[in-house]
Target: Amino acid deaminase/aldolase
Amino acid sequence: MTSATVYDLATKDLDPPLAVVDLAAFDANAEDLRRRAAGKPIRVVSKSVRCRALLERVLAMPGFEGLMCYSLAEAVWHVEQGTTDDIVVAYPTADHEALRRLAASDEARASIAIMVDSPEHLDLVDAALGHNHPEIRVCLELDASWRPLPGVHVGTRRSPVFTPKQAAAFARKIVSRPGFRLVGVMAYEGQIAGLGDAAGARLNRLVVGWMQRRSAAELNRRRGEAVRAVQEVTPLEFVNGGGTGSIESTGADAVVTEIAAGSGLIGPTLFDGYTRFKPRPAALFALPVVRRPTRNIATLFSGGYIASGPAGASRVPQPYLPQGLKLLGFEGAGEVQTPVTGRAARNLKLGDRVWLRHAKAGELAERFTHYHLVQGDQVERTVPTYRGEHQNFG
Model:
């Protein structure tokens, strides 16, 4: 069983703040994702990792095929680095420079599919490249939110393409446009994949569970109809769906050929609240104790690594080791100092380390230039994050 002593021992010659990835936990999480996918390939969501060495590690494992990138510039960079030749960009791009890099590279064009959900996205590509540009592979995004009643929207705000009729109509527009090839359909069910059903009060858990079951049933029906309607227009190479939190329900949909997942590799605090799976905490960061303002409080250097999303307690990093620590409600995690209290605080001395977990999987990599990959009580190697490779994709 891992304790703070193991991580302290592994990094004893390194100065905090620092970040580690526990390879045993990372690999165990990968195996659990593969098990849950029940034979369907998993496309690795890069934004949840943001470290090329770790992406290459998981892509070398059985059951994982290709990347889902969050930026076109990122996708082109991965092709240039030889990470993979199979990439879907999950979000539409307005990056003219990245589009020009895509168009200029035969290898990139063969490897990358960009996301589109309206004719305006096609217009933007034409504006960036000219109307006689080489063929660009595109993926049509179907909105996967749940709309049980008129005016009620449950889920993330993504594509305007919601119905099978709209999907087929847009598919016809894509295939009629020179310079584009429709190769896939994606539908991300954020209200299932990204919302824990084991968090909060009992009533909240019951409501979330009920919503997710109803939403999954509706989406599986609508997605199937939409995919079949698009396939009447043109053959598809892939149908992507899901996320770490919805692997089971997404995989049960017969039209889905691959599942997207990434956060489950890291196991951040936002993924503690699910009944369907329990990822192991794989990425941790250590902050040093620099003050002892009272007997019951130890103040750590830095630490205000607040996660994106709706502001609130769920987005704040949490003390993990030693056990028995918590943040102060008044100060929280600060830009230059983070006080912690609790029974374990009394035993902390200046220079001791406190290990914390981030709320989201990939955003920790934006705070550190390197991850120390820990195997047992040793650092196996130190690898750069995107930041450490001087890459910032926004």
Remarks:
- The chain has a mean pLDDT of 94.
- The first strand starts at residue 18 and ends at 22.
- The longest helix spans residues 202-231.
